[in-house]
Amino acid sequence: QVQFVESGGGLVQPGGSLRLSCAASGIIFSIYGMGWYRQAPGKQRELVATISRGGSAYYADSVKGRFTISIDNPKNTVYLQMNSLKPEDTAVYYCNVQTPRGTDWGQGTQVTVSS
Fold first, then answer.
1. Are 22 and 95 in contact (CB under 8 A)?
2. Alpha-carbon distance 5 to 113, whole Å?
3. 12-38 b/e with 16+ CB inside 10 Å = b?
4. What are phi and psi of 62, to 5 degrees?
5. Tens-digit pLDDT string for the chain (115 aa)
6. Are 109 and 6 in contact (CB under 8 A)?
7. How far is CA 109 from CA 7, 53, 55, 66, in A?
8. Which is nearest to 82 in space by CA: 32, 30, 10?
9. How large is the C-alpha radius of gyration of the chain?
C-alpha cells in the first residue's frame, strides 16, 4: 500500500512562510498527480492545490498568488510553498496521490497561523 512521509507544518506568524512536503512510496505504477487539501475545525475538507505529473497546477481562489505547488516525479514527492500566511490558513493539511488504483491520503500536518 501507499505510504506517506508528510512534514513541514508548524506555528507561524501572519505574513510568514512554511514549506510542506509529502513523499509517497509503495506506488507500483505511474501517478496521475498529487495534491494538498486542508481541514479547519468545524469546516469541510477543502482543496488547496493539485498538480498533475505533467506539471499542470490548480489552486483554490483563497490561496492563489500566495501558495505554490510543485512535484518531483522521480521521488513521488509534492511540495507546497506557503507565503503570506493568514490566520484563515490554519488547518490540518493533507497530501494525496492519484494513481490508476485510486486516491490515497497522508496523515496530515498541522499548520497554525497566529500572532
1. yes
2. 22
3. beeeeebebbbbbeebeeebebbbbbb
4. -70, -15
5. 899 999 999 999 999 999 999 999 988 778 999 999 999 999 999 999 999 999 999 999 999 999 999 999 888 999 999 999 999 999 999 999 999 989 999 999 999 999 9
6. yes
7. 6, 23, 24, 19
8. 10
9. 13
Q: Quick one: cell of 86?
A: 493568514
CA distances from 83 to 12, 19, 40 (A): 11, 9, 18
Three cell numbers written together for 28: 507500483
Angstrom CA distances, 105 to 1, 43, 93, stand at: 11, 18, 11
